[in-house]
Amino acid sequence: MQQIDKDMMVKPCVVTVGTFDGVHRGHQFVVQQVVNLAHERGLEAVVLTFPNHPLQVLQDGFQPQMLTLANEKASLLRKTGVDQVMLLEFTKDLAEMNAHDFMRIILKERLNAQVLMVGYDNHFGHDRKCFEDYQHDGKDLGIEVVGCHELLSEQKISSTSIRQALYCGDVETAHHLLGYNYFLQGKVVQGFQNGRKMGFPTANLQVDPDKLIPENGAYLVSCQLSPLNPPTLFGMLNVGTRPTLHNGQQRSIEVHLFDFDGDLYDQTLKVELLHHLRKEQEFDTVAALKQQLIADEALCRSLLNDPL
Fold this sequence. Notes:
By secondary structure, the protein is α/β, with parallel strands linked by helices. The protein has helices spanning 25-41, 54-58, 70-78, 92-95, 99-110, 131-141, 159-167, 171-178, 194-197, 286-305, and strands spanning 2-3, 13-17, 44-49, 84-87, 113-118, 144-147, 183-189, 203-206, 217-225, 233-240, 252-257, 268-279. It contains ten helices and twelve strands.
């Protein structure tokens, strides 16, 4: 993952441009075509994307709900087989740049692009030209512009549809559209210690505020600790405001790991959502909440032993 620098030396490449939030199956299909064409032409395969959300620049006070943060997106894109993932900060100057100037300054002069692959519904430049316009500009600049094939699917695959699924707690649909389990990751920080008092100690996860958090409720999850390739652990995740415990309206993300005894504070935890158990609810007593947690754990272990 590199930031674009005007003085950098880049090999001739096939490039595609986009936000690629989530790096979902549709994105993966586009990038695979870039990789295939680059290999055929003996060129580098490059993805150009933005570390920030364009609407953060275009709309004051916009709070993004990203499926993938910049480092997460870059990591997922690298797994597709591209040679380079290049990051370009989206700025007001960039937003005001027309398509021809973007192709000349960014793609030709800085990335040494020989071929631009345009997604079937992708537009760039403030003038938002059509594909034929990009081809015309490309001929003027010495960039071949080609269109990629659309992934034919029984269900529309888009970052918006994935967000809608997660807002409803539908992690199975999100998994189908993404091609992988949706995940949260962050540092384990000090919590209220209420779970420990009930026999369910939890790791309180501090997640970047730009990251989309799914619907409040309980989930079956798999977890990994950093650094490199630790064993996979399983547990249950609670997202919400803990209404039974009256801890206020601040939303928390807490993970109880099964069969684990150790200190997690200040460690980074990656949590993959496997199944939505139930929505958040308020119980009459702490004892009733504890009984529900016991039932939740039993259901989780049953699902792990006999997946749906």
